[in-house]
Amino acid sequence: MKLASNPHNIEQMELNPHAVAFSDPLNIDGVEKRSALETIRSILPFLWPENHREMQFRVIIAISCLLLGRSANVYGPIVLKDLIDGLEALVAANADIDPQQAFSALVILVLLYGLMVFLPGLLTELRAAAFTPVSEYAQRVFGLKAFNHLHELGMRFHLDRRTGGLSRAIERGTRALQQVTGLFAFNIAPTLFEISIVATYLAVVYHPKYVLVILFAVAGYITFTLLFTEWRTKFRREMVKQESRATTIGVDSLLNFETVKYFGNENYEADRYNDALVQYMGAAVKSQNTLGMLNGGQLAVRVVCQVAILFLAIQDYAAGNLTTGEVVMLNTFMLQLFIPLGFLGSSYRMIRQALVDMEFMFQLLDLSPEIEDHPGAPPLVVKLAKVSFDAVHFGYDPDRKILDGISFEIPEGRTTAVVGPSGAGKSTLARLLYRFYDTQSGQICIDSCDISSVTQTSLRHAVGIVPQDTVLFNDTIRYNIRYGKPSASDDEVETAARTASIHDFIMSLPKAYETRVGERGLKLSGGEKQRVAIARTILKNPPILVLDEASSALDIKTEREIQAALLEVSKNRTTLVIAHRLSTIVNADEILVMDHGKIIERGTHNNLVNANGTYAEMWHRQKRSCRRNRENPGNFQR
After folding, report:
1. Going by C-beta distance under 8 Å and a sequence separation of 6 or more, which residues neighbour residue 397?
2. Which residue of 243, 318, 560, 636 has the smallest Cβ count within 10 Å?
3. Mean pLDDT: which of 169-183, 249-263, 563-577, 599-613 is highest?
4. Residues forming a β-bridge with 394
5. CA 117, CA 69: separation in Å to the nearest integer?
6. Looking at the predicted structure, is the pLDDT value of residue 198 above 70?
7. Confidence at 488, pLDDT banded by 50, 70, 90
8. Phi, psi (degrees; rounded to nearest 5) at 440
9. Residue 34 in contact with residue 363, Cβ under 8 Å?
10. Could you tell me the domains of the chain?
């Protein structure tokens, strides 16, 4: 990729589609792409929801208004024809015609024509009032289904996707559903219905040549619109791809604001963002240019048809086969048909574009969760809270084994700590216990019950975790602590904060518990975030506790305060501690030393130190490091 030295100099940047590695947001590996027809079929259940009589009734009302309104719209030109022919007859009246009676008949026709003009508009508004709640309901249910499905998908999916592009694609998809239903209900269906009525009327009453011209023109118009729109869809697809790419780059850059500043890479980020915008601009220009070509072709078909109808009508009028009113009626039919038919072209174009936007959403819904409850799986009932790993083998991909036959047991109310170098598989134990992934072989049991045989919801209610990397919601401190138990009272929240030794700090803030923590909790220090996470888990009050390097971000003084709190919290709970600082786990009932996915040592702290193995070496190395830090306080302390 050749990036401009000046991020704002668009002309200097080359359009290179391979400049930045990017995952196509309209494609999910392992899921087949849908055709437009399949996507439309998938929309219908949202518009006719089962067991929702109100929405079904509204659909029926909307269809009825559509049929009546368009029938009145077609009858209007027929009344106009009778009115004009009546006027001619009145002008040429002879002694045998009562002028007053003829005038009264014309007044009735005028009123009837006015009614035919008024009814379509009124019924259109009634149809909108009846159908809009259906469209909004469908959008809400569709969006909620996608949201819930995202939470059902496994950890692997979310680690592989980019949040910015994913959220933008979902936003487009839910909005596109409403657009598709609105356009079809208010533009396409009414126009096609009106065309069929006009064609039927002309075929029955007049020479077939008029129907043939109309049908030929409509068929040509629709065929040209469909084929040309289908051809230019690729430009819309490219626009969507590049827009999602730009959004993803922008969101990632802003989420990593500090990192950008640390390395002074503002211009580099601007270059990346500009590259995506330039490619989006190129696709947008092509899309707009082809749109002009489409509109020009549609206009040509409409004009040719109207001229042909008028030419035939004038010929028949000159031959005495048509009246003046019938010529006006035929021309009015053409105007009434081709004005909405012009919108039909743009409506189809917009629907086709919306279907592209929805394609990713339905691919997403077609994607089966990696981890699913077995049919009829019972909830987990925890009695003793005994945890056991039995010959567990696991790897995030087949070529890289993380756990190699791990077996251990944590008795009821006991604490087991796991230590080892980075990449040994320590944090993977917590992910498997939470069932973010399933083991490839072996079992993980709670009270002798295989966790893969119970519901995931009940399992995760039974296990609480303080993660190594704490991420908070961009909300208040109270909200983030209460997230462990949404129904908790303010007193319960504050009690949990006191136990986590963070209450005094919170009360020192100007807004106390109503203080907002910022995106991902960036307004708090690492230790403060971790104490909020500890308070959140304390509030959850689970029988099984996982501490994934829970004190790794704390200074020595705070660590001691937290360790006292965690010791109290761990009482009467089965606890798995994943530790880096060995000083935090000296009182554990059992310590497991892992390396390359295997347990190489196990025992109490004293036994392992006396064994002079790997653990003893780690212990002495950390003691020497702590001694140096005390002697030279300027040294960096973890």
Report:
1. none
2. 636
3. 599-613
4. 403
5. 10
6. yes
7. confident
8. -85, -25
9. yes
10. 27-366 (1.20.1560.10), 387-631 (3.40.50.300)
